[in-house]
Amino acid sequence: MTDDALTADVLVVGSGIAGLAAALAAARAGDEVTLATKATRPEGASSWWAQGGIAVSRDDPEQFKRDIVAASDGTADPDAVGVLVENANEAVEDVLLETLDVEFDQNGSGHDFTREAAHSEDRILHVDASTGKHVHVPFLNYLDGREDVEIRDDTAALELIRHEGRVHGAMLESDGAVEPCFAGSVVLATGGIGDLYPRTTNPENTTGDGVAMAALAGAEVEDMEYVQFHPTACVTEDGGDVAFLVSEAVRGEGGLLRNGEGERFMPDYHADAELAPRDVVARAVKSEREATGEVTLDVSPLDFAAEFPDLAQRCEEHDVDWTEGIPVAPAEHFLCGGVSVDDRGRTTLDRLYAVGECARTGVHGANRLASTSLLEGLVWGLRAGADAAGNDPDPIEAPDLLERDPDLPDRFASDKFHRLTRVMDEYVGVERDPDDLRRAMAVLRRLKGEVDAYVRTRTSRSLYELRNASVTALLVARHAAENDESVGTHNLVSDERDERREQMAD
């Protein structure tokens, strides 16, 4: 360690709403905060891409709790749900309204609350269908203006610095240079795992970094099998790439799902039809696409251009004629599990916290209720940041990340990623088969072994991202293989479902 090593009272890794909230709370408590993020501002963080909005309790918190538990297929932790709901209104009022002055959409009587799938009432604050960027940009700008917060963008955390069950900081990489940053506490807020799948609503570089770094350091992870797929990602003509996400609010306002034969099908799958929980809708869309060739979102029942001008513009940019229906397919959207934390974001390692999508708070259980991700990130970010404050950095000997072998071929990481995403898509997707999960684990174990061999002697961001992705993918497959119960987003293929598919195809 050198005398000029980076130090911070609190090191936050990640710049979505959860990381920003943690940084804000720690700074308010009097700490000096360093926020390191791989993202380039602002589009690189998942929060920027959030469309639907942020749910609040309004006047009936108990019903909000019931909706969260029902959407989770009865698996959400009631205590965690209580923490979320009971702190929702205060957190939104404090940070988003009073501190950031976010201008949520209004109607004649005040905030224009909307409704999304599995919500029993209108309780979602929104800014058109682009809420994320209208929260994220002012949040970043506000923290930029504070002298007690330093934001280092295009900076990746490669590995946690830990000793005897305590985390002392992280190794940071920026522009090829690697150096330790020692901190009194570390808050992981690294987002999701979109890069593990070929079709995702996440931004690039969502490689499960926080989950992998925490797991490799010895922290507990839970519920990794619960990967949520959003049912309505607009896809290209060949059904391959995601063009953009179509907010659940469109179905909340009356949009209808139709199969390749023009039939509305959701009433056959669930009593709430298009407003059923996401896992139900995603499986239905997948089945109908396989049986009839395509699924479109019919927006003719609403004044789409007037109610969702941002989405109408996205359709135009991607040559999608929304008057003929928007072609949609399920895409990886959100990890409901992650690093195991308590109600303050504390992990099982001393001085290590996790918030946002990389954390498993227990709120979502096996399936997340729409428009609760920004809220969870805000509430747990504030609680974790406040709890993390007050610890002095304690520099120790940093790990020696070696760089002694020749650089890898240019396509090494991309080729390995292609292999990983193909396995995850085929075997660990919307529906899973126990035999396929075992096959996936075998392939992913071999892949992780290959990557580990290179990491021992080479240090680069792309290689460590590949390592993190392989570790996280193996955790998802392993947890899925160990869970023999179909619940929420973890759905095991049954003989009955196979027969139904064949009948539909005929």
Automatic annotation (TrEMBL):
Residues 493-506 have a biased composition (Basic and acidic residues). Residues 486-506 are annotated as: Disordered. Its EC number is 1.4.3.16. Transmembrane segments: none annotated. Pathway: Cofactor biosynthesis; NAD(+) biosynthesis; iminoaspartate from L-aspartate (oxidase route): step 1/1. Residues 9-374 form the FAD-dependent oxidoreductase 2 FAD-binding domain. InterPro entries: FAD-dep_OxRdtase_2_FAD-bd, FAD/NAD-bd_sf, Fum_R/Succ_DH_flav-like_C_sf, NadB, Succ_DH/fumarate_Rdtase_cat_sf. One of its GO terms (biological process) is NAD+ biosynthetic process. It comes from the Archaea. Keywords: FAD, Flavoprotein, Oxidoreductase, Pyridine nucleotide biosynthesis. One of its GO terms (molecular function) is L-aspartate oxidase activity. Pfam families: FAD_binding_2. Its cofactor is FAD. Belongs to the FAD-dependent oxidoreductase 2 family. NadB subfamily. This is L-aspartate oxidase. It comes from Haloarcula salina.
